[in-house]
């Protein structure tokens, strides 16, 4: 208890907490986009439940990983060498997660571009089930959680600060999940943009796994710029629909006697 009071009285701890909360929220955007796209493919009565389970799993995974910080730190130590480059367990997890994101996003894009061809190739029983959705969410939760915890460990040494930041960030994800999912479902072009984001994130994870550091600021700046352009496109389409004249009144048919006189 005394240790917590000392932390609360330290201004540098509050600054680290604020910075870490922002970082955790930003890192959670990737996870939230994936969860929103995946759960929108479920029946409407299961979508909200799947989102809450997925985000709840993310919280428990991150808090659980924080309890094994010493083990997580050792995940960055090389265990094998490929072409003269040391590969750690963290690198392998990031590469596997990136490949999964590439496969999933490419598959979703193919289904969006050619839904009839995708259905014919997959068969009538290939619709996404609730258990399959939760399994895929859990897999990506694990990848993003490990990346998130390693980032947190690099910013502060205080586990209570990391736990508070994780809880706040996941709470923000929980609040934003339903509005984001509804927005994505109501705007098909946003779905394609979000899938493009997932491909970019997957490539970034693979690059990070092979030791090519990609500054996160570049990634999120590109995402924000693309989202801004899409927002302008949506505004332009809305204005165009508002200005376009509706169909004119249907002409009344002439009476038979009047037509005969004419």
Structural commentary:
It is found in: Membrane. It is a single chain. The protein has one domain. With 262 residues, it is mainly alpha-helical. The termini are far apart. A two-stranded antiparallel ribbon has the order 1-2. Helix 3 runs parallel beside helix 7, helix 5 packs across helix 6 and helix 8 packs antiparallel against helix 9. About 3% of the residues have low confidence. 79% of the residues lie in helices and 3% in strands.
Note the main attributes of this structure.
262 residues; single chain; 79% helix; mainly alpha; two-stranded antiparallel ribbon
Give a concise summary.
This is TerC family protein. By secondary structure, the chain is mainly alpha-helical.
Strand fraction equals under 5%
Indicate the radius of gyration in whole angstroms: 25 Å
The secondary structure category is mainly alpha
Number of strands: 2
Q: What sort of overall outline do the alpha carbons produce when their principal axes are compared?
A: globular
> Whole-number average pLDDT?
76
How do the strands line up in the largest sheet?
1-2
Distance between the termini: 99 Å
How many structural domains does the protein architecture include? 1
Note poorly predicted spans: 120-126
Count the DSSP helices: 11
Main beta-sheet annotation: 2 strands, antiparallel
- Helical content class: over 70%
H/E element sequence: HHHHEEHHHHHHH
InterPro entries: Integral_membrane_TerC
Subcellular location: Membrane
Family: Belongs to the TerC family.
Transmembrane segments: 12-34, 55-75, 87-105, 126-146, 158-177, 189-211, 217-236
């Amino acid at each position: 208890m005394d240790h917590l009071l000392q932390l609360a009285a330290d201004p540098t701890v509050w600054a680290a907490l604020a910075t870490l909360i922002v970082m955790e929220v930003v890192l959670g955007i990737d996870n939230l986009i994936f969860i929103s796209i995946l759960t929108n493919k479920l029946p409407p009565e299961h979508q909200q439940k799947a989102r809450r389970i997925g985000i709840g799993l993310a919280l428990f995974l991150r808090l659980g990983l924080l309890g094994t910080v010493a083990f997580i730190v050792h995940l960055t130590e090389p265990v094998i060498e490929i072409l003269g480059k040391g590969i750690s367990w963290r690198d392998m997890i990031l590469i596997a997660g990136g490949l999964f994101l590439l496969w999933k996003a490419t598959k979703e894009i193919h289904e969006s571009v050619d839904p009839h061809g995708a259905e014919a190739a997959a068969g009538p029983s290939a619709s996404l089930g609730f258990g399959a959705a939760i399994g895929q969410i859990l897999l990506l939760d694990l990848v993003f959680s490990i990346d998130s915890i390693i980032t947190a460990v690099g910013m502060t040494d205080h586990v209570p600060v990391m736990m508070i930041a994780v809880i706040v960030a996941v709470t923000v994800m929980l609040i934003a999940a339903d509005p984001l999912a509804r927005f994505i479902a109501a705007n098909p072009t946003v779905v394609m943009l979000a899938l493009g984001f997932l491909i970019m994130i997957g490539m970034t994870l693979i690059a990070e796994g092979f030791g090519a550091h990609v500054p996160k600021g570049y990634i999120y700046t590109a995402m924000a710029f693309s989202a801004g352009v899409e927002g302008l496109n949506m505004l332009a389409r809305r204005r165009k629909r508002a200005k376009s004249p509706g169909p004119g009144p249907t002409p009344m048919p002439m009476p038979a006697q009047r037509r005969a006189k004419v």
